[in-house]
Each structure stands twice: as C-alpha cells, then as structure tokens.
Amino acid sequence: LRCQSVEETLTALFAAGLQSVIVEGGRRILSAFIASGCYDEVRVLRSPAILGSGLPAPAVPPVPSNRLHIING
User: Fold this and answer.
1) Strand (E) positions, 1-73?
2) Do the beta carbons of residue 42 and residue 63 sit within 8 Å?
3) Torsion angle of alpha carbons 24, 30, 34, 35, nearest 10°?
4) Please, what sign has the CA dihedral across residues 41, 7, 62, 48?
5) pLDDT, tens only, 14-28
6) How far apart are CA 73 and CA 63, in angstroms?
C-alpha cells in the first residue's frame, strides 16, 4: 500500500473493508494525522520513567473531553 496522504491511505483502507484504524506511529505519522484532522479520539499514554532525550511529542489541538484519554503508567 503506497499512499501519498492520510486521506488517500484511509480511502484505500476503507476500500479494503476496514472501518477502524489505530495509529501508533512516530512523530511524523502522528503529526500527519493531527494535521489532517482525520481522527475521532486521542489517547495519550504517559510513563513515569524518563527515557532520555528525543523528539518532543506532537502537539494535539483541543479535543472534546469525551474524546481525549490520558493514561498515566
């Protein structure tokens, strides 16, 4: 599956019979989905462990509280 955009990817997945997708990607993939607005809910998993330096997580725009789930580990 080679798609150029989030919308094209979701269209191809829907055509293949998928109606639900969980996106667990790195910063680039998550940022693309956030920018496209093609998501229904956001789940943020936080760890108490500091793993070192790295890329910051992408910023999530305001999401209704019933669609935002923060899980502290």
Assistant:
1) 42-46, 68-72
2) yes
3) -150
4) positive
5) 999 999 999 987 888
6) 21
